[in-house]
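anyone seen this seq b4? input:
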Amino acid sequence: MSRYTNIQLKKTFLPFRQAQYDFDLEKLKALGDDLFSNDAAIKFCVPFDDMVGHREMLDTVYAPLLEAVPDLERRDSIVMVGEDDKQLRWLGCCGYYTGRLAKPWLDIPATGDQIHMRFHEFYRFDGEKIVEVQAIWDLPEVMMQAKCWPFSPSLGTEWHVPGPSTQDGIHLLEEDKSLTAQSQQIVLDMLNSLGNFAEGGVEAMNLDKYWHAKSNWYGPSGIGTGRGIQGFRNTHQEAFLNGMPNRVGDPANGHLFSENNYVGFTGWPGMSMTISGDGWLGIVPNDKPITMRSLDFWRNENGMIRENWVLVDLLHVYRQLGVDVFARVRQLTRNKYR
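predicted toks r here
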């Protein structure tokens, strides 16, 4: 089978993206008949979970959202293609869905106002067919806008997370293979350096070697955004390391790939741990093993990481610990329906 270039795969996927701008569900189903394999493995965040084929995905995930947000619109800020170390080809999309939340959705009450919901979606191609999807939507972001926040307060800034400051996340330009390799190595070295914490603490991770002084770490709603290395530590890293010191990565499930200045990662799951110490994000410590799904994008600039977009399936974490987040949402909003 001939190898499709990055540009060809982006063009192959483009009509499916464009049909989500003015959101034509029937057109998406027809386009998907040619784009997806019949038995494509669809892996979505909680509460959608695993599905087979694009039609089940559209009926289960998108149709109810479109019912609640009739003017639903998709806006991508990053679309990148690359190959992981297993020679698997991935197309990664970072952006947000927006529109007016006119009706309740997933027990989240209607606001009557425009809402925004981040997405990280990774599509694995075999030839020109999509055979797997791994996707996280920032559902807590919608809960926050609907004023039914079921979690503890975020340590970072909660806002409408922007796309790349360079505005170059979407293009149909030829790949600079040297830059691609350099970008991936920077992120790999940074990730490996994080493993030095157990022996030498925070200083041993050498964050200032990899992270730009004005870097932005864009975490999911519930964690928030941190500015600079100290902001990253205050917003996310300190609580994460203290609450889950026994975390272990899962290379078999991880997929890292790059294109020019951009690097993407998906892990389903990508890490296992238990929550201990003083807990994490208000979750009390316990001895129950859990896994974590995390989908990331990095943008490098002059040999340093300048921006990092991160989505974690927080609802999946809570579910493993026996907490029904949607039951909390119903409790918070029940008086609105009386």
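The radius of gyration is 20 Å. The chain is about 30% helix and 30% strand. kinda curious what u guys think
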